[in-house]
Every structure is written in C-alpha cells, then in structure tokens.
Amino acid sequence: MVSTTPATRAPATADPGPLRPPWSARALIAAGLLVAAVAVTWLTFWWIGLSPASLAAGLDDTARLLRRMWPPDLPRAGDVAWMIVETLLIAVAGTGLAALASVPLAFVAARTHKGPRRLRPPARAVVVLTRAVPTLAFAILFVRIFGLGPLAGALAVAVHSVGMIAKLLTDAVEEADPVPAEAARACGAGEVQVAVSSVLPRVFPALAGIVLYRLDINIRASAVLGVVGAGGIGVALQTALGSLNYHRAAGIICVIVVLVLLLELLSVAVRRTVLRPGVRRPTVRRRTASRTGRRDAGAAGRSAGDTTGTAALPAGRAPHDIGWDRGRVLRVAGAVATGVVFLVSLWSLDPDPDRLSGAWPNLRAVLAGMWPPAFSGDLLMAVLESLLMALGAAAVGAACGLVLALLTAVNTTPWRPLSAVVRVLLVVVRGIPDLVYALLFVAALGLGPYAGFLALWISSTALAAKFFADSLEQLDPLPHEALTSVGARRWQAFAAGIWPQFVPSFTGNGLFVADLALRESVVLGIAGAGGVGYLMQESIATLRYDTTAAIVIAIAVVVYAIETLARIARRHLL
Question: Fewest CB within 10 angstroms: 10, 317, 390, 499, which?
Fold first, then answer.
C-alpha cells in the first residue's frame, strides 16, 4: 500500500511555483529601491525648494486659511441634494457605459479568445491608454468638445473606467476554465456564441465585483469633476473658491467628505451582499439535505455515472431548489432596478441630438489639431516635475504611513485606544479627494509644485498607512509570539519576528502608492498645483491641441513605464 501522507509525497509532487531570485538578490533589489527613494526625495526637495523653514511657513499659511474657512457655511438642503444626485448620476452613467464597452473589448484583448488576432494589439492599446490618462484630463477634453455639464463628466468617467474594467475582465477571461469553451467550439459554435454562452456566465461574478469597485472610485472622482466644468458638486466648490467665499467652500468640502465616507460604507456592504449571496444559504441546504437523505442520494447518483437530475446541479443544490426562489427573485429585481437607474442616469445627461451633432465639429477640430504631436522642452520639464513631485511625495508618505501603520495594526500598536483613534483619522483623511487638498494648498500657498507635493504627501500617507496596517495584521504571528515568550523586548521581537516578513509587502505596497501618486499628480496640476496637468489645461484653453496630444502621449508612456517597473519589482519581491 502506497502512503499518501504529505511528508512522503511532497518531494515527488510538490510544485516549486514561480521562480524568484534568492533572498540575497531580493534584499539587494529592496535596498536599491530604498536608495532610489531617498535620492528621488532629496531631488524633489531641492526642485521645489522644500526645507524645514519653508514647510513651517507653508503650514502656517494653511492654518490661517483654515481659520478663515471656519465656521462652514452649508448650502441649502435642496441645492445640496440636487448636487449630490447629479454627482451620483454622473458616476452611474459613466460606469455603466464603461461596463458595456469593456465586455467586448476584454474578450478581443484576451489571449484565449480565438477571434481575429489583428484586433488584439489595438484593443490592448486602448486598455493601456484609457487607464493611464486620468479622469480629469479626459474631462477637460470633453468639456471642450461637448460643452459644460454632466455629459462631459460622464463620458470622462466612462472612457477612463474602460481601462481598468477591461484590464481586470481580460485577466478573468484568460483565467477561466477553457474546457466549456473548447467543447462549444467542437460543436461548431462561433466565437461570439462561445463568449456569450460559455465564458461570460463564468466571469460574470468577477465582472460584477469589478464594476462595483469601479463605481466606488468613480463616485469619488465625480465629486471633483465640476472643478473643470463637468458637472456635479465640484462646480459649487470651484465657484466658492473662485469667489473667495471660503466659508461656503468649507461647507461644500464637508458635504463631499460625508458623501464619500457614507458611500464607502455602502459600497462595502453592497459588495459583501452581491458578491457572496450564497455563502450561508448552501450551508443550510446541505444540512437540510443531509437530514432527509437527498445529499446521499445525489452522491450515489453521481458515483453511478448519472448525467441527469441532481448530477447536473451545482454543488449543494437539490431539484426543488430550481425555480423562482427568493434568491432568484431578488437577483432579477436587483438587475431590473440597476437597469432602470442606469437609464435614468443616461437621461439626466440631457443627450440632446442637436447638442451631440453640434459636438462633431469640435471633435473634428480637436482630432485634426492633435497631429502631429508637438513635443517640447517645456513639456519634458513639466513631465519631470510631475514625476519628481509624485515619487517624492510617495516616498515621504510611505515613511510616514509606516509609522501610522505601526500605531494602527493590532499586532504592533502600543495601545489599543490609540489604534482606534488613528484608524478613524485615516478614514477621514482618505475620504477627502486629493484635488480638494490641492485646491486648499493652492489657495493658501499659491500656484506651483509646492502645493501639489503637500497634497500628494497627505493622500499618500493615509493610503500607505491603510495598506501597511492591513499587511502587518496578515503576517504570521508565531515568530513574534515565540520571541516575546522567551523575554525579547518589543523592538527586538518586531525587528526579528515581524519586519523580515513585512519587507516584501512594504516594498510592493509602496510601489503601488507611487503608481497612484503619479496618476494623481496630473490631476493636481490641472488645479494649478504644478506638473504637466497645468500645461495640459492651458494647451486646451489656447486651442493648442498638438501640445495636448503630446501631453497625453507623455502621460501614458510615463504611467505605463512606472506601472511596468512596479509590477516587475513586485513579482521579484513578493
């Protein structure tokens, strides 16, 4: 009799998994990234003229501005309600349009799709380009083409969201079980039939999760699209700041923060309900089936080779479960309600045919003026400024976020009440969009990269602290507990038991924060906080679309390069 214990079978059947460099090489990579972060931070400080004295003066100016904004002046309830509704409708319309466009795009871009291969490179190029250019940059272009209002904002949200939804859905399609698709092809089905009947039903749960997550992000983005005239509550914020009505601006910022926080809680609850609708229900049914003998009968039928009846049903499902049960009614009702809300959101954009037809001349003028792209030294310097501002802020934010994470994580905090206070503070700080920080710092300190660096510093710190705290709490507690049990001090147990495990997560999450900061640096530049975004807004305002095209290309190349380097580093370190 052959033993089947893990101890005897592991040497012969264990999968070594993906090859990674040895620990010494990974340590060198981590050390190289640390040296690069320090060098970039020093260069950023020199570039923007940041010093302890200038930082203290800037914070003092910001404190004076905040005192001028107190107490907040809230708009009328009716005005607030309409601005919130318009913001939500922009996000829903943009996310829905992006989901509809992403499904065919993802199938064309997937390597497992057997359609025309010549369409795959263009599809992947569209995914990369739309993901690299921020929503606010698209909003500026669409405001110029379609005019002021929520239509431009919804289209900007839709175009940028296509990149993320299609990218993640492409991964899900490529990872789906290929056997049903191959069986359908063997029966003579075309690629469209295979995608609709065999692949799409299997990746639909992943698609639902991606769309819900993207809707959460788009609601945050829609809250500030009005800064460039693309509708929503951001219009009121820009109007208040432009008229120096800081009390009203503070009130609108409070509304945005509360809206974002409430929607974050709602998003978490909806994802848990929608994406895991049957976690408890199959358990109850299996228990019921075991009491009545149905499960044993189904197992006997399957073992006998039965291909009908219970053998064809999903695990944990009995024949009487098929039909219009409560779960199916709720899912269908939810789908119908989602469709109605999406149609209402499209109607709210006021897609007047005359307005859309009048946008074609503007679109032709923009596209015709974009070729050939006009690269220049000023453009390269602006890109360099955005890059330094983002990477420097991400490096400093990662360092500050590490300190806050150590105070927040359950296994490292010195005092539990302090952990709760820091967690609440981080949630509030993350709830304020980066552009709002940039607008405040620009109002207090003036135009330039200094304001953008401070805004990115705050947002990167809060984001890094959240990622680092989650990673710390997921580490294996046994080494730390073993060192503590033999009398090691707190810092000794951390240095020997926690930190060696945490280094890969710290590096990977830090690179991800830098990637996000680089994208946001373009957005902050549009508000006058330095970088290439300011140059982009100026080029569109002066109808120099060849410069706009060069800026879009430069943004896409830089963001994609940083994203690729971060992915390579994470693959070697994690």
Answer: 10
Which residues in 415-452 are b (16+ Cβ under 10 Å) and which e? eeeebeebbeebeebbbbbbbbbbbbbbbbbeebbbbb
Instruction: Give residue-wise pLDDT tens across range 344-366.
Output: 888 888 777 777 777 888 888 88
pLDDT digits 0-9 by tens, 299-356: 444 344 444 444 444 444 455 455 566 667 777 777 788 888 888 888 888 777 777 7
Q: Which residues are within 8 A (CB) of 98 and not within 5 positions of it... i.e. 6 or more apart?
A: 157, 158, 159, 160, 161, 162, 165, 214
Q: Does a cis peptide bond (omega within 30 degrees of 0) precede residue 372? A: yes
pTM score: 0.72
SS (HEC) of 181-224: HHHHHHCCCCHHHHHHHHHHHHHHHHHHHHHHHHHHHHHHHHCC
Judge whether 418 and 407 are in contact, CB under 8 Å: yes
Tokens of 139: 């909003």
Phi-psi region of 67 (alpha: psi -120 to 50; beta: other; left: phi over 0): alpha
Q: Look at residue 461 and tell me whether its pLDDT is greater than 90.
A: yes
Q: Which two tokens stand for residue 346?
A: 């499209």
* Closest among 225, 140, 201 to 533, alpha carbons compared: 140
Structure tokens at 539: 């080029």
Other beta carbons less than 10 A from residue 492's beta carbon: 12
